[in-house]
Amino acid sequence: MDIKNKIKELASEYRDEIIAIRNELHANPELSFEEYNTSKYVASVLDKCNIKYESGLLKTGILANIDGKSVEGKTVALRAELDALPINEENNVTYKSKNDGVMHACGHDVHMASILGAAKILKEISHEWNGRVKVLFQPGEEKLPGGAAQLIELGIIEKMNASCMLAHHVMPTIDAGKVGFRGGMYMASADEIFIKVKGKGGHAALPKLNIDPIPIAAEIILALQKIEPDDEDIPMVLSIGKVTAAGATNVIPNLVELEGTFRTMNEQWRAKAHELIKNTCNDIAEGYDASCEIEIKKGYPFLQNDEELTTESKNLAIEYLGADNVEDLELRMTADDFASFSQHMTTCYYRLGIRNESKGIISGVHTPTFNIDEQALETGMGLIAWLVYNQLSRG
């Protein structure tokens, strides 16, 4: 049997076990940087597989190691996330979240389970390849500043010493059994904007005695929508998603608070836009004798897939799954802290289809009814094992 079919056979053999692991993880989600039980469970699975690991990275992170028949050669790294989201699950399933207000609504349970499956496969066929595989189970993907950036500061890249890093992420718009790739720029940076517009409140019937922050805030919102990069080819989004003004029908408040997001795919424009946002807010407020406080929390950078590695991985996916099951992806203005790795390493981050309309599995990520077609787990573990094998078998 050739190695590709061997990997497919093992993925099929491990399917039920990996589904059970995913269901256990899904039923017991934990929030960012609080993934203590999740970490213990992942470690217990690694122990059963006789896979060595180091734990306690940022308290809950794990770095596992699998050696080939010789440790001479390349090292390839994989990443999966440990954390869940503050969402109350509405699915009526046996593996429904047991933790009120916490749910694996972004598929990190799928990532952990499928990467554990891939680790089992790679361990089983370790006599077929040289080098090492490093498997990172990362805390805190969903919460700024992100576990990836913090681990990088602590030297995780040097510790892994990998020639490249691979990761996949669930995609509710792609059918289970299929995957998607895009080389180069793929996902945006993500910054959080907090603006306080300070005026002078009072009786709404006496506007001349007040400095009304509500129309000032409205003008700021409209002005922010007009900020555009000099280069029209630079993607960007600037959206205000929350406005709070604690007045009443006859009360002008002292304060209006705005919260929003700024996303782009160019670091130079990102820095310039931050200054434009601050100057726009301050100039408008000062024109009405009001004032502004602006805080921009810098989040993840944009995600840049290595063109050569991504093209190679896409072609290998076609070989493994067939051309009809491999799609080209469009740019996305969503974000992932895997981008921090992509700014420092050769990376490929691709999409794993989980949709099955005939089963009613159509909900998006970050929703209380998010779920997956379990075929995605077999596809996910087999494909990423195949990609790693090809990187290592060629030295």
Defining traits:
395 residues, Aminopeptidase, four-stranded antiparallel sheet, 10 helices
How is the secondary structure organized here?
Blueprint: H1 3-27, H2 36-48, E1 52-57, E2 61-67, E3 75-81, H3 108-124, E4 132-138, H4 147-153, H5 156-160, E5 164-175, E6 179-181, E7 184-187, E8 191-198, E9 202-203, H6 213-224, E10 236-245, E11 251-252, E12 255-264, H7 267-287, E13 291-297, E14 303-305, H8 307-321, E15 326-328, H9 338-342, E16 347-355, H10 375-393
Parallel strand pairs: 3-4, 3-5, 5-16, 6-15
Antiparallel strand pairs: 1-2, 2-4, 6-16, 7-14, 8-12, 8-13, 9-11, 10-12
Helix pairs in contact: 1-3, 1-10, 3-10, 6-7, 8-10
Plain-language structure description:
The protein is α/β, with parallel strands linked by helices and 395 residues long. It has 2 domains: 3-186 and 302-393, Zn peptidases (Aminopeptidase); 191-297, Alpha-Beta Plaits (2-Layer Sandwich). 35% of the residues lie in helices and 25% in strands. The chain is built from 10 helices and 16 strands. It has helices at residues 3-27, 36-48, 108-124, 147-153, 156-160, 213-224, 267-287, 307-321, 338-342, 375-393, and strands at residues 52-57, 61-67, 75-81, 132-138, 164-175, 179-181, 184-187, 191-198, 202-203, 236-245, 251-252, 255-264, 291-297, 303-305, 326-328, 347-355. Strands 1-2-4-3-5-16-6-15 form an 8-stranded mixed β-sheet, sandwiched between helices. A 4-stranded antiparallel β-sheet has the order 10-12-8-13. A hairpin with a 3-residue loop joins strand 1 (52-57) and strand 2. Helix 1 runs antiparallel to helix 3 (108-124) and helix 1 (3-27) crosses helix 10 (375-393). The chain starts with a helix and ends with a helix. 46% of the residues are buried.
